[in-house]
Amino acid sequence: MKIPFDFNDKTVFIMGGTSGINLGIAKGFAENGASVAVASRSQEKVDAAITELSKSGAEIIGFASDVRDVETLQAGLEMIAEKFGHIDILIAGQAGNFPAKALDMSSNAFKSVMDIDLQGTFNVLRHSYQYLTKPGASIINISAPQAFVPMELQVHVCAAKAGVDMITRVLALEWGGEGIRVNSIIPGPIEGTVGMERLAPTPELESACTDSIPLGRWGTTEDIANCAMFLSSPYADYINGAVIPVDGGWSLGGATIMSKHLIKAISKS
Q1: Which residues contact 269 (CB under 8 A, 6 or more apart)?
Q2: Cβ atoms within 10 Å, residue 245
Q3: How far, in Å, CA of 247 to CA of 186, rounded?
Q4: pLDDT of residue 262
Q5: Average pLDDT of the chain?
Q6: Where on the phi/psi map is residue 27: left (φ > 0), alpha (ψ -120 to 50), or beta?
Q7: CB 8 within 8 A of CB 33
Q8: C-beta separation of 99 from 152 below 8 A
Q9: Which of 143, 153, 114, 133 is nearest to 251 (CA)?
Q10: What pLDDT is recorded for position 259?
Q11: Going from the N-terminus, what domains does the chain have, and what CATH number goes with each?
Q12: Does residue 127 have a pLDDT over 60?
């Protein structure tokens, strides 16, 4: 039975909401009545996402911003406030990733992922705070299995996403008293996403990845959207500070197996 979500009186802001998992989350909320604002670095992607999401009949706006640029982020948040007045649901979904050995990675390459994933999450939450509905706001950070599963070729992402989950836990403590809930979703291998194209770029790696998932299939963006909508609904009013894998069981051991396949493939190339 499908849970009947109703977000007709809610405003959702999704950072990174113009592609992949985050666009799937945006579609879920829009199709269930929410007003949705999306943002990413590319104005072209923002425009395309607005066009696609508007097919749901929901009110959609968007702006271009890099999470490392606080000025453009603040300007976009002010636009959301002027249009909708408040933010009920905030999704911080920006991410950067590429497979590389630590010794093959420059300090700037490591820093770029830390700045996007970790500093970017802080920037989005910190500067959205004043616009959040209090009490009642739901914040969801999009994390990754690398937050708690060490993976070769992923030292930058492991460090950044572990930090993201600690932001989740700390702000769940600091902001919980104001009725703001903060949780993390950890997606597993999701079909049609750039992240998985980088981690499983060949048919052989795709097959190895599928074999490493206990449920025997890749997830869909709808799987992640369903969890995000559940966490932002009255059904989850007492869930705060949770880090929830939506990964078919992949983080139980498959992620480690997959990293071994990936490092072999990288070594051969």
Answers
A1: none
A2: 22
A3: 7
A4: 62
A5: 93
A6: alpha
A7: yes
A8: no
A9: 143
A10: 64
A11: 11-195+220-248 (3.40.50.720)
A12: yes
The CA distance from 233 to 223, in Å, is: 16
Q: Tell me how far apart the alpha carbons of residues 244 and 182 are, in angstroms, rounded to a whole number.
A: 12
Which region, left, alpha or beta, applies to residue 186 given φ > 0 means left and ψ of -120 to 50 means alpha? beta
Q: How many angstroms separate the Cα of 4 from the Cα of each of 1, 24, 34, 233?
A: 9, 18, 13, 10
Q: Amino acid identity, residue 248?
A: G
Mean of pLDDT values over 135-159: 95
How many CA atoms, within 13 angstroms, populate the side-chain half-sphere of residue 194?
Answer: 11
Orientation of helix 70-84 relative to helix 120-128, angle to 10°: 40
- First and final C-alpha spacing in the chain: 47
Residue with tokens 């590429």: 98
> What pLDDT digit, counting tens, does each position of 164-203 carry?
999 999 999 999 999 999 999 999 999 988 777 776 778 8
User: Does residue 68 contact residue 95 with C-beta atoms inside 8 Å?
Assistant: no
Burial of 239 (0-12, 13-18, 19+ CB in 10 A): middle
Q: What is the per-residue pLDDT for 96? A: 87
Q: Which residue in this structure is represented by tokens 């066009």?
A: 51
Encoding tokens for residue 151? 């993976």
Note the pLDDT of residue 129. 98
Does residue 133 carry a pLDDT above 90?
yes
- With bands split at pLDDT 50, 70 and 90, how would you rate the model's confidence at 126? very high
DSSP letter assigned to residue 59: -
Residue 111 CB coordination number (10 Å): 12
Does 240 score more than 80 pLDDT? yes
